[in-house]
Amino acid sequence: MYTDISTEEFRQQFASGQAGAYQLIDVREEEEHAEAHIPGTLNIPLSEFMARVDEISEDMPVLLVCNTGVRSSQAALFLASMGYDDIYNLEDGTKGWLQQGYAVESVDES
């Protein structure tokens, strides 16, 4: 199983903690991630998720994010089926993050 958390819960529970105490994984496609993403995310698109699952440590909490929480919940279910047990889904996704007015990063295509 996994736990759905809101942007506010994420910020209270994880973002204020030590860097490296959790893994924040954006499962959107590369183009979406490049456009705007939550700082500190690792981009593992859902389309590549099963092939790249070995990049995700089982030794620390995993927070999954997409645009609205749908794709990230699919990734969370997959991780749970693989034996991961400290999994969180950002239920309002990047869209909710932006609606709260929090900063995002983008990749310059210069």
* Percent in helix: 25-40%
Low-confidence segments, given as residue ranges, are none
Mean pLDDT: 92
What is the CATH-assigned architecture?
3-Layer(aba) Sandwich
- The structural domain count equals 1
CATH topology assignment: Oxidized Rhodanese, domain 1
Strand order of the largest sheet: 1-5-4-2-3
Distance between the termini: 42 Å
Description:
By secondary structure, the protein is α/β, with parallel strands linked by helices. It has one domain (3-99): Oxidized Rhodanese, domain 1 (3-Layer(aba) Sandwich). The protein contains 5 helices and 5 strands, in the order βαβαβαβαβα. The chain has helices at residues 7-15, 30-35, 49-52, 70-81, 93-99; strands spanning 3-5, 23-26, 42-43, 62-65, 87-90. The protein has a 5-stranded parallel β-sheet with strand order 1-5-4-2-3. Helix 4 links the parallel strand 4 (62-65) and strand 5 (87-90).
Short key terms for the protein model shown above:
five-stranded parallel beta sheet, globular, Oxidized Rhodanese, domain 1, 110 residues, 5 helices, single chain, alpha/beta
